[in-house]
Amino acid sequence: MKGGSRQGQSSTRGSSAGTGRSVTLVTNKYGVRPPQNGSLATQLQPSQAEFSGRTPGPVVACARGSRPSSPLWRTVVQRGQSVIVKSTDYVASASDEGVLRLPGRTELEPQMVTSVFGYARNLLEKYHVGRVIGAGSFGVVRECVEKATGRVNAVKTIPKVPKRGLPTPRYLLKLRTEVEIMQQLGYSLDAVNLRDVFEDNDAIHLVMELCEGGALLERIEAHKYSEKYIARLTRSILRFISQCHAKGIIYRDVKPDNFLFLRHDDESPLKATDFGLSIRHWPDEPKLTSRSGTPAYMAPELVLQSYDEKCDIWSVGMLTYQLLTGRFPFWEDVRSQTLSDVWKAILTQDVNWNAPELKQLSPSAVDLLKRLLQRDPAMRPSAFVALEHPWLSEDGRARDLPLQGSVVQRLQRFSTFGHLKQLVLKMIVDEIQDEGKQGKAPASRKARAALGNLQDLFNEIDTDSSGAITLEELSAGLRRQGYVLADNEIENLMRRVDFDHNGTVDLSEFITTLMDWDQVQGEQGWQVYLDHAFRKMDHDGDGYISLDELLAQLPPLRPAPGVGSLAQVVSGAAAALGFSRGYDGDAERLAEAKLMLREADINGDGKISREEFFDLLKESHAPDSLSFYDDRLSITSDGRASAVMGQQNRQAAAKL
After folding, report:
1. Domain map of the chain by residue range?
2. Where is the signal peptide (predicted)?
3. Model-level pTM greater than 0.90?
4. What is the pLDDT of residues 570-585, one digit of tens each?
C-alpha cells in the first residue's frame, strides 16, 4: 500500500507452498501470477525435514560487539550444512504484557486486541479525517488535517485484525515494529516523516507527511529522464538503505511503490515509505529465514530463506535496472510469470549483459548494476560501498563538500537515534558544560574543544542574540547557507532539535544535536561519562535500569487546570530531552518508557544491564556516516556546493 501518497496500488498476500512463509504477490506490472498448480517448483523450496516439525535448539552465543546474545537462535540443516539462524523475526520483551507474550502463532479473538500498544486514542480530537487517497492489502490511507495548524497530512489506518484470519501476537509485534522503525527513520529527509500514532479498538492510525508527487515508477514511465537523474534517485534510495543498515534494520521491500516524491516538480526529494516488512537485524547475527518481500525484487538468498541485510542491495539493483531500462533483467513483463518461474529465474538465470537495452547506458551505470546484482551476497557491496561508486558521483556533485555543509546531515543523523540514546547524550552534554563552568579538567578534550566551535555556529544562526534559535531563525540560517528544504521538513527537524518543545533551540540542545559523537566516543573519557549517566539512572544501584527507573525519567501526566504550567511540573534530564510535552494518559507514558527499554534491552529480560547500556552508546555496529544523509545543499553549475555563509561562520563550521 502507499502510505503517505495520494495514489495507491493494491496487493495481495500469499504463502509459499509447503513452508507457510509469507510473501507479497503484487498485482501491478511488477507482480506475478500465482503458480498454476498451487505449489512451487520443488527445486525452489527446502525439504520438509528442514522447515517443519522443528523444536527450538539450545541457546547459541552470537558475537555482536559487546552485545549479549539473544536466546533466539537455533541450528538447522540447509543444503547439507548446519547453519545458525534466528528462531523468529518479531520478538516480545519481558516488559510486554498480555497477548504480546503469548506464542507468536497463537490465534487471538478480536476482543483480545482492543487495547494493546498504549498509543494515544484521541485521533479525532486532533485531526479532521477526510477522503481516501490510497488503499492496499493492509488498510487505507486518508487525507487528514491537523486542527491546531491546518497542516494537511496523510493517515494510514491498519486494522488490528487482518483481512484474512485472526490476529496473532506475531502480527501485532509486526505492526509495532513498523511503527517504531518509522518513528526512528522518519526524521531522515529520505523517508516519510511520521508525525503521530494513535490506536482504537480496531486499528492503529499513523499520521504522516503527505507526499503529493506520486510513486517512483509512475513518474519514470510518464517522462524520459537522463542517467544523471536516475543516478540521483538511486543515490537517494541507497542513502536510505544505508541508514537502515546502520541502525540494524533490513527494509525487505525495495520496490517503486515504496518510494514517493514529496512534490510534483523534478527537483522533488524522493522519500521511502511503508515499513511493514522491515525487521531489526544486525549484520553479525544469525541469518533470517522468513521469506518476505515482493517476489520480483527478492534476492536469491531470501528465496532460499537464509539471508541478511545484503538482500536489500540486490533489490536496489533490480529496481535500478528497471528505472534505467524500463524492464527487469529476467523478464519483459513479469505479470506473465508464475511465482515458481520468477524464483527459478532469480536463482538460476544469468543476466544478459549484452542486452540491447544495456547498450544505451554508460559503462559506469552497467558496472554498478553488475555489482548490485551479484548472485552471491558475499560478492555484493554494502550500501555504504555502493554509495561510493563513481556512477553515483558523476552527476556534477563535488565529492568533498565543505564542512559547513554537514549541518542538515547532522540534524538527521541525531534525529534517527532512539529516545534513550538521545536522553543519555543530553545528560553527557550537561556534564561537559558543568565541567567548564566549574573549571574542572574535561574527561573528553575533543568534546570540550567542540563546545566553543558550536557556540560560534550557534551565534551565527541566533541573529537576535537572544540565546535561543527560533524556527524562523533556523529556517533563514539554513537557507542562507544554501540548504534546500521544504518548510515542513525544517519544522520536522526543529521538532527533534527542540527537545523541551518550547518553540526554540537553546545552546545545550544545539550542541547535543550537532556534536560529532563518533570522535568523542573514541576517547578514554567517554567511559567516564557513560558510567556517570548509568549511575544517575540506576536509582537503586542494583546494576540494572528497570522500567520503573525509566518511568522516573519521564514527566508526569499533563497537569490539571489550575495546577500550573507543564514546565513547572517537569524537571530533570527528561524535560531537557523533550518529553515535556506531557502525556494524555498512563498508558501513553508507559508505552514511551517501554519503547526506551526495548531500545537497549537486547536479551529481552525486561531491564537494561550496564553492558547493554554501554553498548547502546558505543560506536555504531555498522557505519553511520554523515554521507548516508541528504545534505540538501544546492549545487552550482560548476559542481560546487552553494553555501552562502559569512567568513566567520565558515571558520567556525570548519572546526567541527
Report:
1. 403-628
2. none
3. no
4. 334 444 444 434 445 5
